[in-house]
Amino acid sequence: MRSWVFGALMKRIYPDREWADGTIEQIDEYRRRYLPDDRLDDRRAWRDRQLMALDMLKQKAYVDWK
Prior knowledge:
By secondary structure, the protein is mainly α. It has helices spanning 3-13, 23-34, 40-60. The chain has one domain. 67% of the residues lie in helices and 0% in strands.
């Protein structure tokens, strides 16, 4: 399944929403409380390692993910 088909399907199932005033600020405040700026680089490195591991698993599975 092509990613654009999946994306279109997800938009039909979960349409875009209007965010209330201040919602993004609340989310950012929550994120900063549990992941301070000085730990972002470590978190990004962890995320990148996880994505690389996922890519390796996909390659081993011999599945056409495109």
